[in-house]
Amino acid sequence: MSHRDTGMEVRRKVLGDAHVDRAEAAKTDLDAPFQDLITEGAWGTVWASDGISLRERSMLTLALLAATGNFDEIPMHIRATARTGASKQDVIEAFQHVAIYAGVPRANHALKLAKATYAEMEAET
Questions:
Q1: Alpha-carbon span 105 to 107, nearest angstrom
Q2: Euclidean distance between CA atoms 43 and 48, whole angstroms
Q3: Is 57 exposed, middle or buried (0-12, 13-18, 19+ CB in 10 A)?
Q4: Could you report how far apart the first and last alpha carbons of the chain are, in Å?
Q5: Is the pLDDT of residue 45 over 90?
């Protein structure tokens, strides 16, 4: 199986078919190479590795997004925790590390996004 095929499989497992289908439908000639890079590199190599669990990857990803101030993808990765097994407590622990090692304002904003996303998820069920 190619990195692209593996990446698409893992991407669907973590983010869900609906999310991936929307992203694929929105893909254009302009961003297709970038989407391929993400699918092959991020999903087909990093997320596909069996070195650590999907739960641990969720925690790392959320902490890294918050620590670097890349907040736009936090809601998507909070939603993914329903499939990766990372609990709310896991997310809180990850953001506690962000507060200490990268700054309270970033952790605070990440928690605000997580709270809103969890509330949306609960309202959808």
A1: 6
A2: 6
A3: buried
A4: 35
A5: yes
Contact 28, 55 (CB under 8 A): no
- pLDDT, one tens digit per residue, over 18-40 is 999 999 999 999 999 999 999 99
- Domain residue spans in the chain? 1-49, 52-124
CATH number of 52-124: 1.20.1290.10
Q: Is the dihedral of CA 60, 61, 62, 65 positive or negative?
A: positive
Which long-range CB contacts under 8 A does 63-70 form with residues at least 24 apart?
A: 63/94, 63/95, 63/97, 63/98, 65/110, 66/94, 66/95, 66/98, 66/102, 66/106, 66/107, 66/109, 66/110, 67/98, 67/101, 67/102, 67/103, 67/106, 68/102, 69/106
